[in-house]
Amino acid sequence: MTRNGRGLNVTKQEWIKYAALFLLAVAAFGVSWLALTNPRGASEAVSPVTVTPPSATPTATVTPTANATPSPKPKPKATAERLGIELPAEPVVLILGDSYTAGMGADPADQGWAYLVAGSLGYPTNIDGVPGTGFAWGGGEQDELAQEYEVRLQAAAQDPSFVPNILILQGGQNDAAITDPAEVKIATAETIEAARRFWPGIQVVVMGPSAPLPFAGDLSAANSAVRAGAAAAKAPFIDAVKAGWFTGANSPEFNFDGAHPNTAGHAHIAEKFLKAWATLTD
What we know:
This protein has helices at about 10-35, 100, 115-120, 150-155, 180-200, 220-230, 240-245, 250-255, 265-280; strands at about 1-5, 5-10, 95, 125-130, 165-170, 205, 235-240. With about 280 residues, the chain is an alpha/beta fold.
């Protein structure tokens, strides 16, 4: 290239070089423009992205968030009311029942279960046992003697010299002669309520029928009726039948006449009663 007064003189080779550079610049600009407007190209498909969540690690305790509603806790099952005896400062006891309370079968009669219990407890005690009677059965072949327990309690309440604050009612053997168990249940509940009227504040315990086998097998319905009556009056019930005081194994040695226990049988009843009494007064 030479310089003269009128401008620049460009040789042919230089024009070719400038033209090539220009074309390269144009091509570069075009590539850049395409990259900006379609970086993947018009025909290239965009593959979807799959997101794999992180594996959760289980924990032993789940902490709820502030807005979470806690699951309701299961309510505890209702339990039956525990009935018992709160011993007075000076217990005075009346034991009322049938021939078992009278000591029939024991030799002598004062070795009957009621006498043994009274001696073991050591409280002032009156024992009223009349053979052939019950809560609903008044005694006699035809239930004609009117010696039901409530009647006898009413007579006992006429004596101002003896005021019991604990009453033990034993029976049900003779009530098995009643064909309607509901009658026995009602009579049992009414007897307990009557005692509470005669001696306000008295505490009542009921001991159902008990007998050596096979007689015990005939007492199931009467036992259930007496137990239901005690429950209706909210009085503790000692269930000799359910507890199995007399079994096929021990009945022969405790049997007196097929319907009553002998002396050893009465001692057996007294022992079982005192164990049940301990749980009621605990």
